[in-house]
Design brief:
about 260 residues, mainly alpha, globular
């Protein structure tokens, strides 16, 4: 019995070492591990010791590591199909993840990394000292959007081959949910939060709420792709992965309540 448990633990340890430190995609794997460690540390401190969280570098390193992770993904997975259908877990259960979607995700990771820095009091003053950077990211981020590839939710809806027959209705509904949330996120997580920060309208209570929104956004921007990997490896079912991703929508709604 004891030897059996020991053998099982050794297999688990070896599996984790292979998952995070295998030679193939090593930079991406290690960056992902660093991100996850920071994410769980930020999650814990935000809930149980918010003042310590504010004093820690996590208030900006989490966003920056998420951006680095998105860039390493774009540099690593060039072999993925370069198509307009995202192939994302919340939109399909048969399609592979699109390379365009992987690269596109780095744009949103960049906007989120900026927000982390913009909401930190010390870095905020540094950004204010460089008006072109502030104006670009607060008011004009989508003017540089054409520099990144674009995937379309409409394409995911119209593609009948990316969904299995048994899950077709589920993924149609899920894709519309994603579409509605993306519209909300663009205007109320992106523009709105940056506007009120620019105008100096954020109180300490507001700032705490916003940090919670940003941590949740890191889950939806970076960990969402990790969920896709777990689904690809068969460790999560398609519907389970979708619910695990879209469950963060409810947390975001709670922060705005």
């Amino acid at each position: 019995m004891i030897f059996g448990v020991g053998e099982m633990l050794m297999k688990m340890v070896k599996a984790q070492i292979h998952l995070w430190f295998a030679p193939r995609f090593q930079v991406h794997r290690v960056t992902g591990l660093v991100f996850l460690l920071q994410f769980f540390a930020a999650f814990y401190l935000y809930i149980f010791n918010y003042e310590r969280y504010l004093e820690s570098p996590l208030v900006w390193t989490l966003g920056m590591t998420g951006l680095i992770q998105a860039i390493t993904a774009a540099c690593t997975f060039r072999f993925m199909p370069n198509v307009a259908d995202p192939g994302f877990i919340a939109m399909a259960d048969k399609a592979p993840l699109s390379y365009k979607f992987i690269v596109e995700n780095s744009f949103f990771a960049m906007l989120l990394a900026f927000q982390y820095c913009y909401m930190d009091n010390k870095i905020f003053e540094m950004i204010r000292a460089v008006p072109p950077i502030e104006i670009l990211f607060v008011f004009l981020p989508y003017y540089i959007r054409p520099l990144w590839p674009i995937t379309r939710i409409r394409t995911a809806l119209e593609n009948s081959k990316n969904k299995s027959d048994k899950n077709r209705w589920f993924y149609h509904a899920s894709t519309y949910i994603v579409k509605v949330f993306y519209c909300f996120a663009k205007h109320y997580i992106g523009f709105f939060l940056n506007y009120i920060r620019f105008l100096g309208r954020i109180t300490k209570e507001d700032q705490k709420t916003i940090h919670g929104i940003l941590i949740t956004s890191s889950y939806m921007t970076t960990i969402a792709l990790f969920l896709h990997t777990l689904k690809f490896k068969g460790w999560l079912g398609p519907k389970t992965a979708t619910v695990a991703y879209e469950g963060a929508y409810f947390i975001t709604a709670w922060f705005y309540w």
